[in-house]
Design a protein that fits this description.
- By secondary structure, the protein is α+β, with helices and mostly antiparallel strands.
- It has one domain.
- 39% of the residues lie in helices and 19% in strands.
- The protein contains 4 helices and 6 strands.
- The strands form 3 sheets. The chain has a two-stranded antiparallel sheet. A two-stranded antiparallel sheet has the order 3-6.
- A hairpin with a 4-residue loop joins strand 1 and strand 2.
- It is globular, with a radius of gyration of 13 Å.
- 27% of the residues are buried.
Length: 97
């Protein structure tokens, strides 16, 4: 079962809402510190992040990890010539707790 970005996100507003900014910041910090290794690719053609997640992780639901590592937000369709940073999935999940 995939770990969603909300499962490691803090609860806000009396526990009823999720905040993902801490999760994204924590993932980026782990990459910056070298705790999470990455692979960098340059897209030759337009592709969706969920397709990349399926190819690299075996589960499209981890698209948010690639989006966070690449500093590109949640848009699924990514244009050609975009640099994509693909964090090591197991290291990222361990780091995020």
């Amino acid at each position: 079962m995939a770990v969603g970005r909300y499962s490691v996100a803090p609860r806000l507003s009396f526990g009823s809402l999720y905040g993902t900014s801490d999760t994204v910041a924590n993932l980026r910090q782990g990459i910056k510190l070298g705790v999470i290794s990455t692979t960098t690719i340059f897209l030759k053609e337009a592709i969706r992040l969920d397709v990349l997640a399926g190819q690299y992780y075996g589960d499209a639901r981890y698209y948010w990890i690639i989006a966070s590592g690449s500093n590109i937000g949640w848009s699924l369709q990514i244009p050609p010539n975009t640099q994509i940073v693909i964090p090591d999935l197991q290291q990222a999940l361990r780091y995020l707790g």
